[in-house]
């Protein structure tokens, strides 16, 4: 049985000409708009729009369906306005892109407190920027400010990539080698240790190694775990090494569950940015989310 909301969404896409425009007018996410359209196309068995860039061009079948349903849908909307109990605004849905670890460390405890709906998406930073441009995401948290005419970046904090170890790690030899500024011996000691890493991601390790030892690491971690927070839990009260952003493990270091072994002779620092589209109807909602990040990250840029 067809869902009447599919027809409302179809009519709005037809009217606005874009998925983003329909999402803004209906106060739902763009993925929700796409889902309604694909469901209606599957139900009818016909392609209703041709996608040309961001524009949605109705097919002949789409034009025929629009002409057939437009008056009934308008009458239903008028009936809804006349008989609804109130004229309350639809609850907005805000879609946010960030890495999994950032979500767990900052926003996760606050999710239930927001007076609007939230969709969290994890992925690679270039993919997030593309989704932001297309209207699939409303806000991204990223260390990469990729140029775009449609996106504004706001630096709000920073992270330092550091070498950490479990609190049972004997770091005396490393400290001695660092004081002597002996890169070859430092590298030798490091490669003798057990290492933790995440699936398919050695970017932090590569940058730290290149910045401080002037070469690329020629080894793979001994233990590959799902994410950086898993590394922190595995290292706590144990031994082993990892290179991770410091803001993820500040609490564990303060509570002596982890040891901060080396910030590096040449620090690797990432500026963290809010990325938003220049035109948005969700400015107030986005600002309330930004406030949480500023408070949790605790490192305002001077």
From TrEMBL:
Q: Can you tell me where the transmembrane regions are?
A: none
Q: Which family is annotated?
A: Belongs to the LysR transcriptional regulatory family.
List, for all copies, the residue spans of the domain called HTH lysR-type.
2-59
- Tell me what this protein is called: LysR family transcriptional regulator
* Keyword presence, DNA-binding: yes
Keywords in alphabetical order: DNA-binding, Transcription, Transcription regulation
Q: Does the keyword DNA-binding apply?
A: yes
- One matching Pfam family is LysR_substrate
